[in-house]
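Still learning. Any example?
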Amino acid sequence: MDLNEFNRLPADDARTALRPCLDVDRWIDGVVEARPYPDAESAVEAARTSANPLSDDEINQAMSHHPRIGEKSKGSGAEAAHSSREQAGLGALGGDVQKRLAAGNAAYEERFDRVFLIRAAGRDPEEILGELNRRMANTAADELAEVGEQLIQIAALRLEGLLV
């Protein structure tokens, strides 16, 4: 789909197209209602600002669709395809990196009671591990805010990919 097609979609169809980017109704409604966009950059900017910051409930809802970093997404829907593409840049993880990610994921889940979420696109495994370690020192409130920001970054990248 390109930008012109997205701008012309009926509102319900546009909402359906956006849901795999970020399953947050307020975000979806904001992006749909701001159409038509003059260019893809304007649509992506709307994706970044439409629902920022996300509420705790919105973050929890959106998180239910994200796999652990370094693991394959379950399912065959659009969200699973997005996740697979985003994590493809990690390549085949070596044993040491895989073990460190698994240990970091487990420690993070123990500390924050959710999977570790990070925009994987454009990051290598060492950078992701560094961010995981840094974020372990966050307070629960600071970490929730970071998760919300990561969700927004992921949504903007997914929308950009949708409109190309």
About this structure: The radius of gyration is 16 Å. The chain is about 65% helix and 0% strand. The mean pLDDT is 89.
